[in-house]
Design brief:
It contains one helix and seven strands; from the N terminus they run E-E-E-E-H-E-E-E. By secondary structure, the chain is mainly β. The protein has a four-stranded mixed β-sheet with strand order 4-7-6-5, with helices on one face. A three-stranded antiparallel β-sheet has the order 1-2-3, with no helix packed on it. Strand 2 and strand 3 form a beta hairpin. The radius of gyration is 14 Å and the shape is globular.
C-alpha cells in the first residue's frame, strides 16, 4: 500500500523498504496473540475513498463494527488483524 518492497528474513522478521530510504523492521512474536495487536498503523490520505479501495484490493477487509463514523475507515489486514485505518486529511 505504501510502495517499496517487503522481505521476510530467515530469522522470521519482516523488513519493509521504501525507495525514499525509509524502512521498517517488523518482528514476529514468538507467542500467540492473546490481546490487542502489537502494531497499529494509522495511514493518512487526502482521498479516503481511493485509499480504502486500494487497501481492500490488496486484501484488507472492513471493520465497521469497530468504527463506522465516516471520518476514517478501520480495516483488517489479510490475516484479520485490526491494523489499518485510512484517515481523511
Amino acid at each position: 500500500m505504501l510502495g517499496g518492497t517487503v522481505e521476510v528474513h530467515p530469522q522470521g522478521y519482516g523488513h519493509a523498504a521504501h525507495p525514499g530510504g525509509l524502512g521498517a523492521r517488523l518482528p514476529a512474536g514468538a507467542e500467540p496473540k492473546t490481546g490487542k495487536n502489537r502494531l497499529h498503523l494509522d495511514l493518512r490520505s487526502r482521498d479516503l475513498t481511493t485509499a480504502t479501495a486500494q487497501a481492500l484490493a490488496l486484501g484488507a477487509t472492513r471493520a465497521d463494527e469497530i468504527y463506522a463514523g465516516g471520518r476514517w475507515q478501520v480495516l483488517r489486514d489479510p490475516e484479520g488483524n485490526e491494523s489499518v485505518s485510512s484517515a481523511l486529511v
